[in-house]
Specification:
There is one protein chain. Helix 3 runs antiparallel to helix 4. The chain folds into three domains: 91 residues, Gyrase A, domain 2 (2-Layer Sandwich); 58 residues, no CATH class; 145 residues, Rossmann fold (3-Layer(aba) Sandwich). The chain has 330 residues and is an alpha/beta fold. It starts with 6 loop residues before the first strand and ends in a 14-residue tail after the last helix. It contains nine helices and twelve strands.
């Protein structure tokens, strides 16, 4: 890649925000002028200024001239708009990058630190901060391919960046929605003693002891003539196949789950016993005891889910971590 060729990249997580930020840098300020004029059909912007502009044939947005050699284009964050903007920039001779060049982070001391800063900006989980900050030094200290344990740890630590899916399953009226509400401290799911109340899969992001997860509250699996509920159950079964961890709920006042056991999520199945306020689990029962109604065990449940997905040894490890796709090429 020529040093005087414009380079561009998406600086925000794809498809997540209302506004996207596309960065473009070039060692020649006149190239930045040319791109602003060509993309917006308007005059360039002075360094340190921003303006509302129309990206011709694409979208309205904001253009910010960060420096003589650096501009940010900020359209709406929809994937289609971002894709069209990237294609337009390529047609204007911008070299599109999957990762930001180091010049995109002037404070970075090397390319690995630039990748770390880029990853830090889009990491979903608070627990990602300390392990990420330590990674540039680890990669400087040790080169070469990762060993088998580092590879396995990388897969788990990547869950700090991209939230894993946790699917909560169980028979109708076992308290799945009540558990979600207890974790949320909010009544986002409908709680009722009428079977079939949760007629759709409910997905929310939860911060569980520093790890952000996509928690899917599924409808109870049962035979039903209700078309909407049958569709929801079918959708929930598809979610189970993609889940990283299953949370299977049982309770003393409902029949046990009859869901097939062929599911093999990467982080296994966490079986819990809800409604301990009605009846505790029997002696020798290894299921995790909680009461969504009283709150007993909810904090411990959040910690247990986090440890099943990213454990304390992973977080404290002094090894390397492939936290960015470009590191596969190192």
């Amino acid at each position: 890649m020529s040093a005087d060729q414009p380079r561009g990249w998406l600086a925000t997580p794809p498809g997540r925000g209302a506004i996207a930020i596309v960065e473009v840098v070039c060692d020649r300020p006149q190239e930045i002028d040319r791109l602003i004029e060509a993309l917006t059909n308007a005059s360039p912007i002075e360094t340190g200024r921003c303006a509302h502009r129309t990206f011709v044939g694409i979208d309205d947005g904001v253009v910010a001239r960060v420096g003589p050699d650096h501009v940010q284009f900020m359209p709406h964050g929809g994937p289609g708009i971002v894709r069209r903007l990237a294609e337009r920039l390529r047609s204007l001779s911008v070299q599109w990058c999957d990762a930001p060049p180091q010049t995109g982070f002037p404070e970075a001391t090397d390319p690995t630190e630039a990748l770390m800063l880029d990853t830090l900006a889009r990491a979903a989980s608070p627990a990602a901060i300390e392990p990420l900050l330590a990674q540039p030094a680890r990669w400087r200290e040790r080169g070469g391919p990762l060993d088998a344990e580092e590879q396995r740890r990388s897969e788990r630590l990547q869950r700090l960046i991209d939230p894993p899916t946790v699917a909560c399953i169980g028979p109708p009226n076992a308290g799945k929605s009540a558990i979600l509400n207890a974790l949320l401290r909010d009544r986002r799911a409908i709680v009722s003693d009428r079977p079939g109340t949760t007629r759709d899969r409910i997905g929310v992001r939860l911060d569980l002891d520093g790890l952000v997860v996509e928690w899917v509250d599924t409808p109870g699996f049962r035979e039903t003539n209700d078309l909407i509920e049958r569709t929801a159950i079918s959708s929930a079964r598809a979610a189970l196949r993609d889940a990283t961890l299953l949370v299977e709920v049982a309770a003393p006042d409902v029949e046990p789950l009859s869901e097939p056991r062929e599911l093999t999520p990467a982080a296994g199945i966490l079986r819990i016993w809800n409604k301990t306020d009605l009846s505790p689990p029997s002696e020798g029962d290894r299921r995790f005891p909680i009461s969504a109604e009283t709150g007993v065990g909810i904090v411990e449940l959040a910690r247990e889910v986090r440890s099943r997905l990213v454990n304390a040894d992973d977080l404290a490890s002094s090894g390397r971590w492939i936290f960015h796709p470009s590191l596969h090429e190192s």
